[in-house]
Amino acid sequence: MDRALELGIEAGARGDVPVGAVVLDEAGRVVGEGANRREADADPTAHAEVLALRAAAAATGQWRLEGCTLVVTLEPCTMCAGALVLARVDRLVFGAWDAKAGATGSVRDVVRDSRLNHRVEVVPGVREAECSGVLEEFFRDRR
Ligand SMILES: [Zn+2]
Q1: Taking a C-beta distance cutoff of 8 angstroms, is the pair 105, 75 a contact?
Q2: How far is the CA of 76 from the centre of ligand 1 (A)?
Q3: Cα(128) to centroid of ligand 1, in Å?
Q4: What are the phi and psi torsion angles at 119 (to 5°)?
Q5: Would you state the pLDDT for residue 142?
Q6: Which pLDDT value is given to residue 19?
Q7: Of these four, 16, 33, 49, 62, which has the most CB atoms within 10 Å of its CB?
Q8: Coil, strand, or helix at residue 67?
Q9: What distance in Å separates the CA atoms of residue 131 and residue 129, rounded to the nearest whole number?
């Protein structure tokens, strides 16, 4: 979560909502990193989680990220939750809850939908205060 927070803060410094994500393999090594680049790239899908999953898939040479854990500072949205299922990620660890758009336990729960062919273990609220603090500070400074 340290690295995810760092990546999030870097995104915030260039004007993107500060969300950072890392993918760890079974051995706990970082195989992918991502930070929100929606503004930087003018790309509506450039969320930290999607970019981290792409980086991990490129690094490992496979789209299946079985055995991997994605760590992200904010609860994933519907798109990112869908991407976690598609990538067959084993575990999701997130920091702050997203009561407006969260799709892994708050507004909806895409990663534990029994109708889908893969489910993801969810570990929510890890270093929640720090993670939500970074977001609150970003939005406070923009007002
Ligand atoms: Zn997302």
Answers
A1: yes
A2: 5
A3: 18
A4: -125, 150
A5: 82
A6: 98
A7: 49
A8: coil
A9: 6
Distance CA 41, CA 47 (A): 10
Is the confidence at residue 31, as pLDDT, over 80? yes
Taking alpha carbons only, the member of 5, 23, 22, 3 closest to residue 129 is 5
Q: What is the CA radius of gyration of the chain?
A: 14
Give the closest residue to 105 by CA, choosing from 117, 87, 93, 88: 93
Q: Residue 141 Cα, ligand 1 centroid: separation in angstroms?
A: 22
For residue range 76-116, list pLDDT tens digits in order: 999 999 999 999 999 999 999 999 999 999 999 999 999 99
Cβ partners under 8 Å of residue 126, min gap 6 = 1, 71, 93, 94, 95
- In the set 10, 26, 33, 49, the catalytic residue is 49
- Catalytic, 49? Answer yes
Cα–ligand 1 centroid distance for 7 (angstroms): 15
